[in-house]
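Re: [help] complex structure
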Amino acid sequence: MTQKLLRGRVLSFVAEPQGPEDTDSFVYHEDGALLIEAGKIVAMGGYEAVTSKAGGAEVVDHRPHLLLPGFIDLHLHFPQVQVIASWGTQLLDWLNTYTFPAEVGFADAAHANTMARAFYDQLIGHGTTTAMAYCSVHEASVEAYFGEAARRDMCMIGGKVLMDRNSPDGLLDTAQTGYDASKRLIEKWHGQSRARYAITPRFAITSTPAQLHAAGALVAEYPECFIQTHLSENKAEIAYTLDLYPQARDYLDVYQMAGLVTEKMFLGHAIHLEAREIDALSEMGAHPVFCPTSNLFLGSGLFDHSGLKARGIQSAIATDIGAGTSYSMLQTLNEGYKILQLQGQALHPYQAFHWITRGNAMTLGMQNEIGTLEAGSAADLVVLDARATSAMDLRMDAVTTLAQELFVLMMMGDDRAVAQTYVAGTPQKA
Ligand code: GUN
Ligand code: ZN
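Output below.
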């Protein structure tokens, strides 16, 4: 079996950083190396030590760049690649004006396939190697999504959106057809190559109680699958939801009543939460997802990361393309940093880079496969160049520590800072 040895400045987290001084939370090798074989990392360490384990492996020298685990993006919408940067509206109008019309087109398999190739090119270009995405209501979109991921050997999570009301023609299933199609897709794709399925009721407004219960039945039948939906993103959305579900104690209760809330559940946005909802998220181990660029773009509100963390809630972080405005997890950290600053919560670069790698992997329970560079993990990684632009180069001349460099990357970096992205040991960037 052929081996490959990547040389560079290796950085991988082993625990959640507790603060700026917590250098025990990561492994860092200034002259480091990764030995890769059959798509997996066989060894991580200093260059000399790793070389001694490699018998004639091809050496790829990435110095002076950083080698990190590939980024993980846990909330985005595959059918919204042509919705990004649509002007002037907040959530419900934005959905009706721009998003739903664009998603109708994914009934066409040829269009879905073309967009899937473009979608994965964007992820790879921005250093993202695993993502959890919503497909459209159409099975063709799910086939395109997982088919293209399989061709690239990527570890991807996703699912068919369930929506049986308050949506235009061409974008509606029923409780029964949505259940049947999801079941077929789970049987076909979950655990197939590196795919995982997420049961995906879009949100309370576009599902009848019958559909949410059908989704709950799927959760009971397939407890190994993830569940993704939206929660408390926008005030008008919350008011409409409570009108549609008068018997619910609050928004989260709509999902609880349907048996959807488990530690496998990811709830996009989760901004305007009631005390009872926070108690329930904490108790059930479900994961809010912070979507900074989207929350700013749609004027949705400020995510209370520290408040949730203080309750033992593990939040994920994500781009939320196409309400999100960048595929870059670095730019996601940039805007996330500012949202937290507005609330007196300073996100340290160690915590930030942990979050988009091992932290997100932990919320999935997949930290043994992705999110770190430990031996045995998939060789999904990103090579970062903190001098990628002239402005970054100028700033880097005054940088003396790893933490400072990481902060430059998260504030100023984007796809230009991604020198290479590896999936299962194979470089993907042209
Ligand atoms: N709520 C329901 N659907 C969506 C969506 O596509 N994007 C966002 N940001 N929120 C939603
Ligand atoms: Zn979303």
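The CA atoms of residues 361 and 367 lie 5 Å apart.
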